[in-house]
Amino acid sequence: MPGALEAHIGGNSKRVIAGMSLSATSSLLLAEHIPGFHNAEGSFSGCAATSRPLPRLYAQLTVNRGGGSADQLWGTMGSEYNVYNDALVNATPTNLRPSGTYDSVNSGLGGTNDRGAQGSPTLLVENGVIEAAMSPCIHNLKAKIDS
C-alpha cells in the first residue's frame, strides 16, 4: 500500500509517524514492530508502558471518558497480546533509534495559553494530572533506549 500511495501522491519515500496522547503509543509500536520503515517517529504526551499497573490505570481513566477500556486497546493485562502492545517492553535502540525518534511530554502545569476562553479550570486540572502522569512513561522510555 505505501508504494502505491506514494506513487499516487508523488511521495519521496520519506515516512514519518507521530501521535499524541493515546495514539502516541501506537506510533511508537508501529515504529518498533516495523523497524526502519519510518524515517522518523514522534510521540507527544503518550505512555509507552501499557502492561504495567500504574501507567495502565492512567490510560484506563482516560479511555473511560469515552466508554472504552484499556483491554480493548492493548489486550488483557499481562496477556501475550498485552506485552506485544507495550511500547516500553518492545523498545530497543535498534528498533527506535534508526528512525529518528522524538518523544516529548509536558509537566502538567497549565501555561498562559491554557487559560483562555477554552481553558476551564476542570479541564486544566484533569488534563494537567494526566499529562503529569505521562511524564515518567516518556522518561522511562528514554532511559531504556539510552541504556
From TrEMBL:
It holds the Pfam family Esterase. InterPro entries: AB_hydrolase_fold, Esterase-like. Keywords: Hydrolase. Residues 99-119 are annotated as: Disordered. The keyword Transport does not apply. One of its GO terms (molecular function) is hydrolase activity. This is Alpha/beta hydrolase-fold protein.
